[in-house]
Amino acid sequence: MTESTPGTVERNEAQGNGVAASAPASSSAGGDKFAVHNPATGEVVTHVKRMDASEVAAAVERGRAAQPGWEALGFEGRAKVFKRAQKWLLDNADRIVETSVEETGKTYNDVLGVEISYMAIAFEHWAKHAEGYLAEERVKGGSPFVLGRKLIVRYAPVGVVGVIGPWNYPLANSFGDALPALAAGNAVVLKPSEVTPLTSLLMEEAMRECGTPENVFQVVTGEGETGAALVDEVDFVMFTGSTATGKKVMARAAETLTPVSLELGGKDPMIVLRDADLERAANAAVYYSMQNAGQTCISVERVYVEDPVYDEFVGKVTEKVSALRQGQPSPKMDVDVGAIIFPPQMDTISAHVEDARAKGAKVPVGGKRGAGPGDYWEPTVMTDVDHTMDCMRDETFGPTLPVMRVRDEEQAIELANDSPYGLMASVWSKDTRRGERVARRIEAGSTLVNDHQISYGAVGLPMGGWKTSGLGSRHGADGIRKYTRKQAIAVAPRLTPKRDVHFFPYSARTTKIMGRLVKLIYGRGPKE
């Protein structure tokens, strides 16, 4: 193989050797390469270059040299590149889907309906709105000493942004986080998960073909050491992943005072009130807990149902989950739930289910490893659960749906907030005013009424976590401004006195005049 670029991979033409289902997702393939597996089959897909700290530093240095030219293109020039890339995305959707399915084991529908659709929207949004979000702002002064001055806030790109992406959404949540950073005029170095690097490498090729200048967008591949090296070198870190790893990223970044944005774990609650449309709520609970095999940070991870409708709701979700089709994804799109992408996650899912069983929960559907050579967990419903169980307190990240009976709305709110996480939540009621009132009391960065997850597609709406679910947000104005440095500019008028009243030398007279002026303007007190 010729290592012509950091993204070069070596395809394994002999796909039939197979790998034990319990093998690590990216086991060693030699000192300078690691293996990428298909979790739906256990087979080795390819070997990817393992980049060391010196290679990461060199990539960041190249990005820093290329960034001024990219910034100089302006918003209009960068938007043209984004529009070309948007067309490339849709023209090459089949190729992207095949690549993503091969490394994630997720269904074709999940890649097309979620990731491709999201990216098409995101390219459009940042191409259209970046300039408005980052437009210079004129500020009115609050002090008599700045009268006549022009006061400006401008947003300047930070330089080189390091994006460390997760394995569950290698397109939307890895490459997707590069878009606003690029739109702001930064260079980006993306370190995808070692479990799913291939989609990011494909998008590096795409951006180059669509006119992104050399080294403005680069992908570095490797494991934890590669990510740590990236944190050391860049001017801003965007990390998506577990809360435990996010804390390590933040601690490492603190050594260089590098700012970070973190989208971390979630244990997202769904509250079903007694006046909810139970058919819609049950359909949503099943989809949003099982989509992508539950490997979504904003999946429904726990459900609280008011007592009068609990049994009916459980009956509906049990029937619907029982009908789900699981297996190896295919272009026929005849599979609903795919594989578990990261093999160690199987242990977490199993532990949560067994802990619930041991503490008295019932498992009317699923509850065990699925059939096949790859890593599958059967779509699972758990009832009679409570907060003594891990499945109601810790992030499961798998195709499970624990449903808990509650007395009333107040208990549902209390339990929904009884969590260290606060990423997303939903409330279900035919009375939307009631639903919104309850939603406002939930401690989460995003709350929805009679919907779940769908607000993620509203790229103009901020998306971020409270509590241990993260810092900062993606999307909206904050989602691009975080990749900039604010600069305050004050410009004195052309005609100014040679000496302002507060300049040296001090005098009792001028100081008293200044004090009286401040008291005259600000010392009136409230109107009674």
Search tags:
528 residues; alpha/beta; Aldehyde Dehydrogenase, Chain A, domain 1; 2 domains; 7-stranded mixed beta sheet; 15 helices; 21 strands; globular
Number of separate structural domains: 2
> Which descriptor suits the 3D outline?
globular
What CATH architecture of the largest domain would you give?
3-Layer(aba) Sandwich
Average of the residue pLDDT scores: 93
So, the CATH homologous superfamily of the largest domain? Aldehyde Dehydrogenase, Chain A, domain 1
Q: Enter the CATH topology name of the largest domain.
A: Aldehyde Dehydrogenase, Chain A, domain 1
Residue stretches low in confidence (pLDDT < 50, at least 5 long) are 1-30
Number of strands: 21
CATH class of the largest domain: Alpha Beta
What structural category do the secondary elements indicate? alpha/beta
Compute the separation of the termini in Å: 82 Å
Largest sheet: 7 strands, mixed
**Roughly how many Å is the radius of gyration?**
26 Å
Q: β content, as a range?
A: 15-25%
Strand order, main sheet: write it out: 13-14-15-12-11-17-18
The assembly state of the depicted protein chains is single chain
Tally of individual helices:
15
- Helix amount: 25-40%
